[in-house]
Design goal:
mainly beta; globular; 121 residues; 11 strands
């Protein structure tokens, strides 16, 4: 099972930008999709971006289209989430995940510990 560690979260003003990174360590498996989820207190964990191993297929819901971009560097075993034009409603703990690719939590086998993103108004 791959270990995932997120970084890059923090406090930012509305309209600002953050870039999250997720570094994989230990044994990794080629062919796995990578995804980013977020979860606020009292809310369900929500898939906000996913990318195939090749990078040729991506997923983004309408809530983040035009603002968030997912990318990956397989040689560095790292996936990124570039977040622009941040809004207070983006405040959440952000998690990266690895697995076969799914819109639901159960479809992912490995999870990072999460990184807090707080957007002030």
């Amino acid at each position: 099972q791959v270990q995932l560690v997120e970084s890059g979260g923090g406090l930012v003003q509305a309209g600002g930008s953050l870039r999250l990174s997720c570094a994989a360590s230990g044994r990794t498996f080629s062919g796995y999709a990578m995804g980013w989820f977020r979860q606020a207190p009292g809310k369900e964990r929500e898939l906000i971006a996913a990318i195939s191993w090749s990078g040729g297929s991506t997923y983004r819901p309408d809530s983040v289209k035009g603002r968030f971009t997912i990318s990956r560097d397989n040689a560095e075993n790292t996936v990124y989430l570039q977040m622009n034009s941040l809004k207070p409603e983006d405040t959440a703990v952000y998690y990266c995940a690895a697995g076969r690719g799914s819109t639901i939590v159960a479809g992912w086998g490995s999870w990072g510990q999460g990184t807090q993103v707080t957007v002030s108004s």
